[in-house]
Amino acid sequence: MSTFTSFQECQMVQIKSINRLMTAVAAATLAGCGGGGEETTARVNESAGGISRTLAATGGESGLTGTADAKTPQKDLPFGTNGTATLNLVNTSESWNDVVSQPDGKIVAVGLTANLPQQNWLIARYLPSGQLDTSFNGTGFVEIDLAVDRQDNATRVVLQPDGKIVVAGSSGCCDQAMVRLNADGSIDPTFGVSGVVVTKSTVGVTSLATCVELLLLPDGSFRFIGRAINQPGWGVTAYNANGTLDQSFGIGGNIGIVRLVTQGETEPGGAVLNNGLITIGGFNLGSFVAARIDATTGAFDPSFGTGGV
Q1: What is the maximum alpha-carbon separation in the chain?
Q2: Whole-angstrom Cα distance, residue 188 to residue 179?
Q3: pLDDT tens-digit profile of 64-90?
Q4: Are 220 and 147 found together in one domain?
Q5: pTM for the whole thing?
């Protein structure tokens, strides 16, 4: 039986996993019914002027909603138009997958813009009022095409202490990808190759097709948690602060990656970093499963569950 160091850690992993499983089910249901509609894909809580507000990114339409704390309705913060900020590009459809609030109150949302068969990453920044921040790339948004005539999708975003923005997701159907932007929305050429990292599915390295969590470690390195596509299971890929694969991380000959669950239908849900350990929760054949690894080496924590799972 898996044990957690604290109730809060257990709760965080389970909540993230359940929320993201429900999101995946909702998206699949919508797709099975011919598309349309929208579902909440990410939430972030923030405070401004002593007032709490929840920002919710939605899929299906590029809506970003801001709702003030119900306890202080008389101090509701104006946000967008009737509480919703949208971004609609010409002849395309947009949706958000993740959202994060900057210390200055500005909001970064990541997702996709699609004109099938082409689908590109979309990163936008909003002012606290819900208006596009035109100091970000001159337009308020950045569109990134990683794979020509293929379906790219940005799914997670983290903020670095220096204000840079790191986005993770997929390139096409099968490759994991990350991009780092400067605070002004320009691509950071010091990261990866001209600001872009793409890890392809090759022998010895299992690419993670879907990024369900991107963790920023204190040393500036990254851990990309996702679902594998060319082998059963899900796992973690380690990147150095400059976007290169961390070749000291991993086991079993898989440089830079640890596979956590290797049997059956699996879906990772969420991860938390605590005391140098990464605890990851997800679902395997209908049951909740969790694993814990050392954030630096990728070694399984033998004190957790059975051999770390």
Answers
A1: 59
A2: 8
A3: 655 544 444 433 457 777 777 777 776
A4: no
A5: 0.77
